């Protein structure tokens, strides 16, 4: 019984420190929408970088683009964006597997 009251006291103190009430501790729908919009923007940025890379590469091959430095910068940006997206995906999958393997 003592540990339960200690947990209640801890939760009350945490609410006072953070300034949030019990109803505010949970993620709201607007937070979920904002996470979705951030994720959507990140994927759109990755797609834009890949399209820019494709256009620059095709321009170099066809001879319409003569600035190799610009194409190389675009290539590096696209590569870094893709590597970041892959690492985020790997972390999400790892977290999902950790949650899936939890025993209650």
UniProtKB/TrEMBL annotation:
Listed GO biological process terms: bacterial-type flagellum-dependent cell motility
UniProt-listed InterPro entries: FliE
Q: What is its main location?
A: other
User: GO cellular component terms?
Assistant: bacterial-type flagellum basal body
Locations listed in the record: Bacterial flagellum basal body
Keyword annotations:
Bacterial flagellum, Cell projection, Cilium, Flagellum
Please list the GO terms describing molecular function: cytoskeletal motor activity; structural molecule activity
Q: Which Pfam families match?
A: FliE (PF02049)
Highest taxon above the source species: Bacteria
Which HAMAP family would you find in this protein's record? FliE (MF_00724)
Family per record: Belongs to the FliE family.
Supply the name of the protein. Answer: Flagellar hook-basal body complex protein FliE
What organism does the record attribute this protein to?
Ligilactobacillus ruminis DPC 6832
């Amino acid at each position: 019984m003592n540990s339960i009251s200690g947990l209640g006291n801890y939760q009350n103190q945490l609410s006072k420190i953070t300034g949030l009430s019990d109803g505010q501790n949970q993620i709201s729908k607007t937070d979920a929408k904002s996470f979705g919009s951030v994720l959507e923007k990140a994927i759109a940025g990755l797609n834009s970088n890949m399209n820019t890379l494709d256009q620059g590469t095709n321009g170099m091959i066809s001879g319409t683009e003569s600035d190799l430095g610009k194409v190389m910068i675009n290539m590096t940006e696209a590569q870094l964006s893709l590597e970041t997206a892959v690492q985020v995906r790997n972390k999400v999958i790892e977290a999902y597997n950790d949650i899936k393997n939890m025993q209650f």
